[in-house]
Amino acid sequence: NSKIFYYTLHDEKEGAHSFTTKRAEVLKDASITWIDFALGKGFTQVQLRSHLRESGAEAQQYQAIVGTETQQCDINSDAFHENIHTQSVMLAKGILSDKSRAMYRGTIRVEKNAANCQGHQHSDMLLIGEEARCNAIPVLEVENDDISCSHGTTMGQIDEEQLYYLVSRGLDENEARKLLVLGFVEPILQKIQNEKIREELTNTIRQKLEQK
Question: CB count, 10 Å around CB of 200?
Fold first, then answer.
């Protein structure tokens, strides 16, 4: 019956490399919520896995990448359903500019004995400019038919109509882009229940965008 919220801000300096491994074993009627924000200028790799061991176990895994300059980010997010009546939700949002690079892999695995499970994942990647690159690889490994699982990925450029609308209302183009970036990652920010942490992280993102 425990509930854990684990927030991580990855803000490496240029030339720095960060490797993070996180694991959870979630037992009966317990839940784990992981939230990762990758903002730095260096290389960030995150290996994240939730093992849903007993019935009623839940995992929510949220990642946001705001890539600039030559930042590189590699995120692996896995949820393993190992018992009945377990649930997982995975959402990743990435917005990349300049020469930044990102790789996101999300895997939901359902074992043979894990009936009546729900596992859903989605990733949205937005590119600004011509040199940013991103790959998103959603994976479902399902060995039980009595479940509900889904995955999806979207990828595209910044909406020029939205940008034009903001500029036509008096904002310069740089400020309009900042607003669009914040709006894009807002669904992840809203998952942070601690208001103080949410405000601090929002301010950190604003400061990063101010440096561009």
Answer: 12
Q: How far apart are CA 37 and CA 26, in angstroms?
A: 23
Measured distance CA(99)–CA(102) in Å, rounded: 10
| pTM score over 0.85 | yes
Biggest CA pair distance of the chain: 58
Helix 173-189 vs helix 195-210: angle between axes, to the nearest 10 degrees?
Answer: 150
List the one residue out of 147, 192, 162, 211 whose CA is nearest residue 11. 211
> Strand order in 17-26's β-sheet?
17-26, 43-52, 72-81, 101-110, 133-142
CB count within 10 Å of CB 54 equals 17
Strands 87-96 and 117-127: parallel
Looking at residue 23, what DSSP letter applies? E
pLDDT in tens, 68-78: 889 999 999 99
Burial of 110 (0-12, 13-18, 19+ CB in 10 A): buried
pLDDT at 165: 72
Query: Which are the contacts of 145, defined by CB distance < 8 A and separation ≥ 6?
Result: none
Residues of the chain with pLDDT under 70: 212
Taking only the tens place, the pLDDT of each residue in 129-172 is 789 999 999 999 999 999 999 999 898 887 777 777 778 888 88
Q: 39: Cβ–Cβ under 8 A, 6 or more apart, which residues?
A: 9, 10, 11, 66, 204, 205, 208
